[in-house]
Amino acid sequence: MGNESHDFLPELGDQDGPQPGPSWGNPRWLDAVSDAGADLTAALDPTQLKAAVKEAAAKAGKPVDPKAIEQAAADSIRAMLLVRLYRVRGHMAADLDPLGLHAHNMPEDLSLEWHGFAGQEDREVYVGGVFGFEWVKVRDLYDALRRTYCGKVGLEYMHIADTEERRFLQDKFESPGETIQFTDEGKRAILGAVIRGEQYEEFLAKKYVGTKRFGLDGGESMIPALEAVIKYGGANGVREIIYGMAHRGRLNVLANVMGKPYKVIFHEFSGGSANPDEVGGSGDVKYHLGTSTDRDFDGIEVHMSLVPNPSHLEAVDPVVLGKARAQQAIRDDLSKHEQVLPVLIHGDAAFAGQGVVWECLGMSGVPGYNTGGCLHFIINNQIGFTTAPKFSRGSPYPSDVSKGVQAPILHVNGDDPEAVTFACKLAIDYRQTFKRDVVIDMWCYRRFGHNEGDEPKFTQPLMYDAIRQHPKVSSIYADRLIEEGVIEKGYAPRLREEFVALLDEEFEAAKSYQPNHADWFGGRWAGLNKPLDPEGARRNVETAIEKKLFDSIGRTITTIPDDLEAHKTLRRVIDGRAEMFKDGDGFDWATAEALAFGSLVTEGFGVRLSGQDSGRGTFSQRHAVWVDQKTEAKYIPLCQLPHGKFEVYDSPLSEYGVLGFEYGFAMADPKTLVLWEAQFGDFANGAQIMIDQFIASGEAKWLRANGLVLLLPHGYEGQGPEHSSARLERFLQLCANDNIQVCNITTPANYFHVLRRQMLRPFRKPLVIMTPKSLLRHPKAKSSASEFMGEQHFMRIKSDLKSIDDKKVRRLVLCSGKVSYELMEKRDEEGLEDVSIVRIEQLYPFPGEPLAARLKRMTGLEEVIWCQEEPRNNGAWFFVESQIEQALSDAGHDGMRPRYAGRDASASPATGLAKRHQEQQEALVAAALGLDGKANSTKSSKKKA
């Protein structure tokens, strides 16, 4: 669909409508700070309070003389302060720890003595409707506060600025009809879910002794709680849930929440593959895998998916959020955020310790990244591997980081499955009402070690003595239901026997189970596939556009609306682009990019570009967003095009989280060109986990294709060690099995074609582009209009700008990127007529076939040089050396090997000294061209290897 609005940033709720006001306009929750204490202030206003007390006393037949009213008002103030402190700090005295190891010292300010009510428990005080009381005995008020705020659920919510949100939670928590109440049928269902969780873990332990499973043992209350998320979420409009979690409990969630067949999991435990053998790939351990399914509660079907996750804790978090955002866009749910719910399940140590958790929290509510609130569920083991909480964090709870986005936090005792289920129900109600993050912190324990082979008593002997003596959740809960008369004594044992019998049947079925399909090209991915012929699939793609479309996009991106007060420099830039279309020549990088984006949008694709400065461009080159200089209204030319949707966002200052988000978005939507742009390519190493574990290996491990594009500014311009290198060598080291594409492109038209190729092929592979800096405006790095049309396409290798007969070439310099122009300029300056510069535009998959064909025509070739700007131990040299040698052999130049010309090996990617940089650059160019005076001693020859 097209964008009708001229505006760049939508409102906080992420509607497509305009955002009023200038760039410093505050998000909604900041506007509420001024009335953060309104609920208390009104209650304690002396004049209003005395009037209210007098009126209430008269109705109740109590004394209304001035002295009595004065005393009653004073009592009321103390009572309301008592209530206030329980709302703020009651969670600190809640019964949360199933093991009873956590100190439960009552904070002094929660006692009646501290509030001056010692010995006055039977005095009636006016509280004006709190807990449904007008007048209440101090004793009864105190009991209600203790019961509500210090039971099995502790609520933290008074840090929230928005009064409406606080009152919503307060009403839900304090109203008798909203508290932990379940029907007998509901209680039996909760017990059944707990038993399934427990018996499943016990079955695995018996059948696969000593095998790692990262069991849920001790946290089984999570199973009915997650089912409550589906049930109550569905009743509140949720139609899709996207889960992310690490190892612990994953197999249990896959089986008992997601509905993955038990026999399939047993098959995997026995060493079988989750997919047919012919699919290939490396596979992954079973507790990293994901799945998708549909479940029906009360006639409402909810689609669920669990995203695969590596061993890197919390790495999946931004992926889930990005996928959720994409699914909301696909379902046209971005205005309400009602149908798609992201759910992230965390460990306590990981939630407190992993920085990506905050990066994800920080994105909540941010335009372009808002998912309408995520439900965070912390499995609080009260330990991380062998590390105690006091060494894991410096705050009382693992959830404390979430206060930074004013998320409500429900701490709950994991030994009470009703309380945990209630917490999930309340969390869903809050999220669906306010579309904001909410956190459940379930205190439980880990019955075994970090994995089932560990001995936890090495480091926590007292804790594990307590755990070994502690009854199981199902036993505690079953005894309670027997006492309540909900079940008879034999009910729970019968459920266990029936479920184990089912598991035995599934165990036998697993012996003959064979996977018959891999569902990675279904749904929105239908019609796409895995390329059978990588060479042919990349070559046979028509990416040129018709002149009519070329001209139409040109008009769109060079027309400034009459009512837009554009910056004077921007006007010159736009006028310059208009001249390109008029003359048909001189097209620069940014204009070619806009042509690629615009043509894809017009053809019905989506384009989503995000990065820290993507609207304007780090180097003030893109100008995808035009800002009115008087009102700061935003105009995006490409949003005016029909059919598809163009989005560009200046992202939060995050690499890890934002790149993960974009990967998740591209995972869900192959019909949108999703691009993440680093401010400088060097900064991509802040997202190395996403690159290594997801982008480079996700398809091989999990059969999850992805078409994400990484734009990484790269090139040695004398700007120092952190503004030169996108670490090309790291990407090339990750290349294998046709997993990703790595390009270092030198012309605007070739950039145009590679972007279009990314969407027009029948498959998706991540694309890493070393984008230029100085080439953005280099006079030689220009393209003509004809290069975007006709029979033009992406060129994996590019010829010299100077036409040289291949047969006359004696020295061939191969290179990629910006150094090619410096080589050509110096070669022409020196008048070298037998030296040819050939650019390798796509480094992986390496274009060995066309390169060999070109080399074969160079019958007089004497030496081949690989020239790069990067130090010898960086850049492409170690990757391309063997590839070039193979191409030489295929071309008949047996025994010839390429020679290196570039900087010496270095621990730092580049120097920060301008003079030294220039000397190094001149030296490597001279060496490549044989102008360094050392060519004879280092010259390659046709000697045998």
Q: What's the CATH architecture of the largest domain?
A: 3-Layer(aba) Sandwich
Helix segment tally = 32
Molecular shape: globular
CATH topology of the largest domain: Rossmann fold
Given the helix and strand composition, which structural class is it?
alpha/beta
- The average pLDDT is 91
Number of domains: 4
Helix content class: 25-40%
What is the CATH superfamily label of the largest domain? Answer: Thiamin diphosphate (ThDP)-binding fold, Pyr/PP domains
The tally of beta strands, per DSSP, is 24
Task: Provide the CATH top-level class of the largest domain.
Answer: Alpha Beta
Q: Main beta sheet, described? A: 8 strands, mixed
What topology, given as strand order, has the largest sheet?
Answer: 3-9-10-8-7-4-6-5
Note poorly predicted spans: 1-20, 32-38, 934-945
What does this structure look like?
The chain has about 950 residues and is an alpha/beta fold. It folds into four domains: about 35-180, TPP helical domain (Helix Hairpins), CATH 1.10.287.1150; about 185-515, Rossmann fold, CATH 3.40.50; about 535-715 and about 725-790, Rossmann fold (3-Layer(aba) Sandwich), CATH 3.40.50.12470; about 800-940, Multifunctional 2-oxoglutarate metabolism enzyme, C-terminal domain (Rossmann fold, 3-Layer(aba) Sandwich), CATH 3.40.50.11610. The protein contains 32 helices and 24 strands. The chain has an eight-stranded mixed sheet with strand order 3-9-10-8-7-4-6-5. It has a seven-stranded mixed sheet with strand order 14-11-15-16-18-17-22, with helices on both faces. β23, α30 and β24 form a beta-alpha-beta unit. α7 (about 185-205) packs antiparallel against α17 (about 475-485), α23 runs parallel beside α24 (about 690-695) and α29 (about 850-855) packs across α30. It is globular, with a radius of gyration of 33 Å. It starts with about 25 loop residues before the first helix and ends in a 7-residue tail after the last helix.
